[in-house]
Amino acid sequence: MPALQSIDAVPGAPEALARVQLSAIPDDKPMLRAAAELTRDIARARPEIYWPDMIGSALVGYAALAGTILVDNVWLALALGVLSVLTLYRALLFIHEISHMHRDALPGFRTAWNALVGVPMLTPSFMYEGVHPLHHARTRYGTGEDPEYLPLALMKPWSLPVFLLVALLAPPALVIRFAILTPLGLLIPPLRTLTWERFSSLAINPAFRRRPAEGEMKRRFLIQELACSAWAIALIGSIFAFGWRPLLIALGVASAVAVFNQLRTLVAHLWENDGEAMTVTAQYLDSVNVPPPGIMAGLWAPVGLRYHALHHMLPSLPYHSLGEAHRRIAARLGSDSTLQRADHKGMMPLVVRIARSTMGRH
Questions:
Q1: Position 237 confidence tier, pLDDT thresholds 50, 70, 90
Q2: φ, ψ of residue 43 in degrees (nearest 5)
Q3: What is d(CA 164, CA 261) in angstroms, rounded to the nearest whole number?
Q4: Fatty acid desaturase domain location, by residue (predicted)?
Q5: What is the largest CA-CA distance in the chain?
Q6: What letters, b where the CB count within 10 A reaches 16 and e where it falls short, cover 223-235?
Q7: Cα–Cα distance between 105 and 238 in angstroms, integer?
Q8: Are the C-beta atoms of residues 206 and 162 closer than 8 Å to each other?
Q9: Residues 174, 180: Cα–Cα separation, whole Å
């Protein structure tokens, strides 16, 4: 593996990854084979983990949000607001699991999640289903056809704060999208087409255009969209019954969730690909694991996303199995393996690395 050897020859290999063109890195077949062999017995989604985790996170999040709105003590309201952000963020990230889930894996889970989380937070599962799998496609990852990839490390320094701050606008934008654009789109077909192509995906690539849904997915997605439209209109109507304060607080919490998720997205990859197609191993090395002993990653990258690189190697593995999978593969391959080159210590070193990369190129 000459490309990987050239990485090894540079002190501090992970930080020097950009010196090797990612598209030139071949697959580490022993690692991929070990990953497949060692995880076969933990590949089943366990309902006794999924259901309590999702429902408990959502209920605690809504209870804390209600407390944030209702209590008079500023510090208590702030503490409840933080709790609401963390738990609703965790509940929301099950959309990632749903996008990879086989339709027969957890009967009723997708519907329950949409009713409890997706519709109330105006982020139904259709915004990820049929979109996120494109990010894992062998020939799309890191290219212009990837809806979830921007070469942020190769862009100008101002792109990073813009990337984060734009997330603040996501909740009010979703209210407008569902309360106004959805009803108008039913009357104006060109607007409907534009809304679907541009404003119906959790994508960060501004060039991405979503194709029309087909078959059973079209009917299911329409039901989700109409439910979100009704809820968004009800949120606007709540102003007349309860005033502005409850809605503004809820939107503030939702904006904090969106920014938190955008910050996680910023450090989910190294964003160093130049647009060429890559091997699975190259995709893995352009992605990030933040394994224990650190505990903070469990808060900012919950539901298995602290093992984002491993997830790109094993996209169908359920979130509750990723930690065990990482331990098994590491034990098999040893400390000097390709597996370890995607392991990082935490969020801030990754933010600094990406920021330095942008400044060093301009």
A1: very high
A2: -90, 0
A3: 9
A4: 74-334
A5: 67
A6: ebbebbbebbbeb
A7: 37
A8: no
A9: 10
Distances in Å between the alpha carbon of 227 and those of 55, 61, 119, 233, 234? 20, 21, 7, 10, 11
Q: What is the pLDDT of residues 85-128, one digit of tens each?
A: 999 999 999 999 999 998 888 999 999 999 999 999 999 999 99
How far lies 117's CA from each of 146, 203, 218, 279, in Å?
26, 19, 20, 35
Other Cβ atoms less than 10 A from the Cβ of 242: the count is 11
257 with 313: CB under 8 angstroms? no
Per-residue DSSP letter, 205: -
Share the mean pLDDT of the chain.
91
DSSP 321: G
Residue 273, SS3? coil
User: 117-137 burial by CB neighbour count: b if 16+ within 10 A, else e?
Assistant: bbbbbbbbbbbbbbbbebbbe
Q: Mind listing the pLDDT tens digit for each residue in 302-326?
A: 999 999 999 999 999 999 999 999 9
Q: DSSP 3-state assignment of 82?
A: helix
Q: List, for residues 137-159, the tens digit of each pLDDT value.
A: 888 999 989 999 999 998 999 99
Angle at 61 (CA atoms; ends 55, 66), nearest 5 degrees: 125
- Which of 271, 275, 267 is closest to 286 using CA atoms? 271
Question: Contact at 8 Å (CB) between 28 and 338?
Answer: yes
Q: Which alpha helices (DSSP H) does 114-243 contain, by range?
A: 132-136, 159-165, 170-176, 182-187, 189-198, 215-242
> Distances from the Cα of 199 to the Cαs of 127, 130, 134, 195, 360, in angstroms?
9, 14, 17, 5, 34
Q: How many CB atoms lie within 10 A of CB 108?
A: 9
Token digits for 69?
A: 């709105």
pTM of the complete model: 0.91
Six-digit token pair at 128? 């990820």
What lies within 8 Å, CB to CB, of 76 at 6+ separation is 67
